[in-house]
Amino acid sequence: MCCSGECRPLGWLLGLPFAFLSLLVSLVGVIVWIVGLLLSCICPCCLCVTILVEVAIELIKAPLHVMEWFTSQIPC
Fold first, then answer.
1. Do the domain assignments include residue 75?
2. Hey, what long-range contacts does 27-31 have (CB within 8 A, 24 or more apart)?
3. How many domains does the chain have?
4. Where are the transmembrane segments (predicted)?
5. Is 26:55 a contact under the CB 8 Å cutoff?
6. SS3 assignment, position 1
7. pLDDT for 14-66, tens place per residue?
8. Which domain holds residue 46?
């Protein structure tokens, strides 16, 4: 029997501890993002700082990616 919709509470509950860990990683991403923005204001020609800021943005989005992955892996 299949669920009607995208509601998967079991996947959400199992993914919660991992989402908490990725939330801590996203806090590190926020710090890296702020430092990267400051460095890019000082030296805008530096390409590695731009890449660092892009990686930081992906770290900030990590909790959402983790929860989406877990809810997609667990059937209803």
1. no
2. 28/59, 29/55, 29/56, 29/57, 29/58, 29/59, 29/60, 29/62, 30/56, 30/60
3. 1
4. 12-39
5. no
6. coil
7. 777 877 887 888 888 888 888 888 887 877 677 777 787 888 888 888 878 87
8. 9-68
